[in-house]
Amino acid sequence: MDIILEDIDKLIPYARNPRKNQAIDKVAASIREFGFRQPIVVDKRLTIIAGHTRYEASKKLGLKKVPIHIAKELTPVQIQAYRIADNKVAEESQWDYPLLNLEFGDLLDMNYDLELLGFDKNELESYLTYSGQSKESKELDTSTFEKFKHQCPKCKFEFNE
Length: 161
What we know:
Blueprint: E1 4-7, H1 24-34, E2 40-42, E3 48-50, H2 52-60, E4 65-70, H3 76-92, H4 97-109, H5 121-131, E5 150-151, E6 158-159
Parallel strand pairs: 2-4
Antiparallel strand pairs: 1-4, 2-3, 5-6
């Protein structure tokens, strides 16, 4: 796959892009922190196929050149379909929350700012509280819990009637 640097002003946003670019600030922060790691995919006329949010984030950052990949081998039908598939396929992935929390924990141990990962404060607090890693999470006070009345003699399971 060939990737070249192109003047950002030569790129043409696709007028019927069906995806809303609500993540521009988060993508801009990601590009600022990690650099440009995924090229913008364009057709032969430099019309954007995939990467509209990266394009907008790059403009916001004042970048003059951006990495692009010209998808020369795609037919017009494939280009139109790929615009949708590229975004839809990403929605199908789900987080493995226990593993995600392990990664968060490692990054926190290294004093890394987790907000640079694209999660907002509420999301992070929710995940970290769930995993017990939040500084604000509290131990559950069980002192006021009612004691069970019965216990199975074989398995020791406690229960009430």
